[in-house]
Automatic annotation (TrEMBL):
CDD domains: UPF0066
Protein known as: tRNA (N6-threonylcarbamoyladenosine(37)-N6)-methyltransferase TrmO
Ranges where the TsaA-like domain occurs: 26-156
Keywords: S-adenosyl-L-methionine
Family in the record: Belongs to the tRNA methyltransferase O family.
InterPro entries: TrmO-like_N, YaeB-like, YaeB-like_sf, YaeB_N_sf
NCBIfam families xref list: tRNA_TsaA
Membrane spanning residue stretches: none
Amino acid sequence: MTVKKTSDMRDGEAVLDAPQAQDAFVQFIGTIRTPFTTRDLCPRQGKLEGPDCRLELLPEWAAALKGITAFEYLDVLYWLHMSRRDLVLQSPKSNGTTTGTFALRSPVRPNPIGLSRVRLIRQEGPTLIVKGLDCLDKTPLIDIKPERCAFTPQAPHKDADKA
Ligand code: SAM
């Protein structure tokens, strides 16, 4: 591990000299609109009674919403695009106590994917109105899935499902 220090790091934090190269292609399917214009205004985790937010899909992905209104809760994945990606150890409390990145839900991670369980309020064409997000306005949207407990697979059972 290369110990490199930048001025925005807290005591005890460690950073990896990780390559910036992209080795996987993620296509954004739309944009998330929230009332949170700065990171300080974002809650640490979204609240289901929080403000309405909008998942605005690109027109070419709008048809992929077919059937979505059958579900009250959705899992939303998004790209925390303003995050640094090189911290291995983090000190969330700024007190020198460090925790590994993978033991945190911090936005700072090698692949800054955010995951929130949201409540679907309504669909307006290519846009879903939801509650429960914690991300900045204009955060890129990666994926939407029905919440797994409410979802019954539509494909035929596999032997592996029976055990
Ligand atoms: N709920 C998600 C999860 O658990 O994977 C994200 C949790 S993360 C702690 C939420 C915080 O990330 C917000 O409070 C804000 O400080 C920060 N954040 C939100 N949107 C961001 C963005 N687009 N880029 C970087 N940081 C962001």
